[in-house]
Each structure stands twice: as structure tokens, then as C-alpha cells.
Amino acid sequence: MTTSKRTTSADAVSAGSPARRPRRTSATHSRKTVEPAVAPPTDTIDREAIAALAYSFWVERGCVGGSPEEDWLRAERELLERA
Q: What confidence tens digit (pLDDT) does each residue in 55-78 have?
């Protein structure tokens, strides 16, 4: 007479087999609409003009120090004031 042994999840883990997780049937996160960040109105100013002016600020400093972002924003402000 042969008897069969039923395996439990503890037996499967001890035998080296990964325990299975139950399947999720529904979404757990709600879908939220994310609005894009509003960019400054650079459409009215040529990006190349901003880049050239920002570069000139860097050259005026002797090509050291500062940050490209600060130079870009300063150039943007100055060109917007001129417009």
C-alpha cells in the first residue's frame, strides 16, 4: 500500500522552491492625471540667443565658477526685459 504525502507551503520553502504569492486581480493604485510642468515663456525668445548670452556671462567670469543654470536664467530674464 502506497501513501502519498501532501506538501505544505512550509515544505516547499524548506525544499528550496519559492512560495507562490496570490495573484492580484485588480489595480491597487488609482490612476492620477499628472499635468505637465509649466515652462517659462521661452517661446518668444530664441533659445540660441539665450545660450549665447549665458555663455557670455561665463566668459566674463573668466570661464570659472558659477552655474550654467544660473547663467541661463539670468540670460532669459535679461532678454525678456529687453523684449
A: 999 999 999 999 999 999 999 999
Give the domain extent around 46: 39-83
How does pLDDT run across 8-17, given as a tens digit for each residue? Answer: 655 555 556 5
- Domains: count for the chain: 1
Backbone dihedral region for residue 74 (phi beyond 0: left; psi -120 to 50: alpha; all else: beta): alpha
User: How many other C-beta atoms lie within 10 A of the C-beta of residue 56?
Assistant: 12
Whether the predicted model's global pTM rises above the 0.85 cut:
no
64 is written with which cell numbers? 570659472
Distance CA(7)–CA(10), nearest Å, equals 8
